[in-house]
Specification:
heterodimer; A: alpha/beta; six-stranded mixed beta sheet; 6 helices; 29% helix; 21% strand; B: mainly alpha; globular; P-loop_NTPase (chain A); ABC_Transporter_VariousFunc (chain A); ATP binding (chain A); ABC_transporter-like_ATP-bd (chain A)
């Protein structure tokens, strides 16, 4: 999946939320989007999911099956969890029998007959995750997926993300809660001033290698990284501190 | 087509389970009481169907707008990713809105047969009534879609725009040039007898379908940047 010269603004004379974003997200990528509030993270996720159209530029080779779990799941709907997920399964053209295993894995079996409006924040979030995962997604978009989740599901989520990536899917996560902190193989996308900076995937250190942490002024970060890379070290810029 | 129809069923089910479904039925009841509290004299049945079609445009619009506004904004995003592309979400909304309005139109055709007409009218009157209700249903669905939340976010602005547009359609269609808007008054004038309706049907259909198609295309176009 490739984003080329992607720019977006909400109205003709509105300021650009994103401009000239170029990104390549090959199959199996796990990307974590970070940035300050209002930096355009949710907008980027919606553009990736295909629910918003780029004002300029293009997104090509988007996988056909997209799972989108919103930051806040909309509970103001007159359905029980089962009825809602059954409808979503029907829309995706998959049998309702796929609901059970996901309900079990996300720890929400006891919630299946509960009306959406009666769910707690964390439980509603699980329904949002379940509907995104019902059909194996080629592109999984998770907007703040760790928000409000219980410990068990928080621990389960990185494994789910890995499974989707291992099956060739692309996973893009907006994550303020640092739920994927230290997770191997994550590409970091930092949104700043409307553009995205990608820094390479953090591969786990192998035997005989060590990781050193260097804190530098933001203005010097890129130069220091390049200097270390020029010396032959495997250096990557992790982005600005929150 | 299957994702679109499944999504239309989801939207229809959500609307039926919400309190919003009551509103257009109250509107329909009001129109039926106004028109059929006195028995319609023999020979006036088609004319009464035309009055009903003209008066029901805002009821159909209210139903379409209510259905499209029932779903939370974020659910529309989820639905559009689940369906595969945003166009299917837009189409599913219009299909579900039309389905609700078909139920309302069927009631508007059947109720006078039970309580309004002195005698059972013949097939030409029933067919004429059906055509007029289809005109009204299309106009109302298009008007309601253009006033729905993705297009007009503020509920007060939306309601006033919708009712204002209906009033404007009525006023403009009073002038003799029938193609200026949906010719609601011309429907009523033409439906004096089945023969006069038949005579004007081709022209009225073309103008009505043209304006409704233009409104629905405008809605579809606007939804491209208003998910």
């Amino acid at each position: 999946m490739r984003l080329a010269n992607l720019s977006f603004r909400y109205a003709r004379r509105a300021p650009w939320v994103l401009h000239d974003v170029d990104l390549d997200l090959p199959p199996g990528t796990i990307a974590e989007v970070t940035g300050r509030n209002g930096a355009g993270k949710s907008t980027l996720l919606r553009l990736l999911a295909g629910t918003a159209r780029p004002t300029r530029g293009s997104i090509t080779a988007r996988p056909p099956v997209v799972g989108y779990a919103p930051e806040i799941f909309p509970v103001a709907q007159p359905f029980t969890v089962t009825a809602y997920l059954s409808h979503m399964a029907a829309v995706r053209g998959i049998p309702a029998t796929t609901i059970g295993p996901w309900a079990e894995r996300l720890g929400m079996t006891s919630l299946l007959d509960v009306p959406l409006g009666d769910l707690s924040k964390g439980s509603a979030h699980k329904v949002g995750l379940a509907q995104a995962l019902l059909a194996p997604p080629g592109l999984l978009i998770l907007d703040e997926p760790f928000s409000g989740l219980d410990e068990q599901t928080r621990a389960e989520l990185p494994a789910l993300v890995d499974e989707v990536a291992a099956a060739g899917g692309i996973v893009v996560v907006s994550d303020h809660q640092n739920g994927l902190a230290g997770h191997p193989g994550v590409t970091h996308l930092t949104l700043e001033n409307g553009t995205a900076h990608a820094s390479g995937a953090t591969r786990p250190a192998t035997s005989g290698q060590s990781i050193i942490e260097i804190l530098v002024d933001t203005g010097d970060a890129e130069a220091v990284t390049q200097k270390l890379q020029a010396e032959g070290y495997d250096a990557r810029l992790q982005g600005e501190a929150p | 087509m299957r994702p679109t129809m499944s999504l239309a069923r989801f939207k229809f089910a959500g609307y039926l389970r919400s309190h919003r479904v009551i509103q257009p039925f109250v509107g329909l009841l009001g129109v039926m009481i106004i028109l059929y509290s006195m028995r319609v004299p023999l020979g006036q049945e088609l004319s009464s169907y035309a009055d009903s079609a003209a008066l029901l445009v805002p009821v159909f619009a209210w139903a379409a707008r209510g259905l499209l506004d029932t779903e939370p904004d974020v659910q529309r995003l989820i639905s559009s990713t689940a369906a595969g592309r945003p166009g299917r979400e837009v189409a599913a909304g219009l299909i579900a809105a039309a389905a609700v309005n078909i139920v309302l139109a069927a009631l508007a055709l059947a109720i006078p047969l039970i309580i309004g007409f002195t005698a059972m009218p013949g097939a030409p009157v029933l067919l004429g009534g059906l055509v007029l209700q289809v005109f009204s249903l299309l106009t109302g669905t298009a008007l309601g879609a253009l006033a729905s939340r993705p297009i007009l976010r503020d509920p007060a602005t939306s309601a006033l725009t919708m009712l204002g547009a209906y009033a404007a359609i009525l006023l403009v269609s009073l002038v003799p040039i029938t193609w200026l808007t949906v010719p609601v008054i011309a429907w009523m004038r033409a439906a004096h007898t089945p023969a006069s309706l038949n005579q004007s049907l081709a022209g009225l259909s073309a103008i009505t379908v043209f304006w409704c198609a233009a409104a629905l295309l405008a809605y579809t176009y606007l939804r491209r940047t208003r998910p």
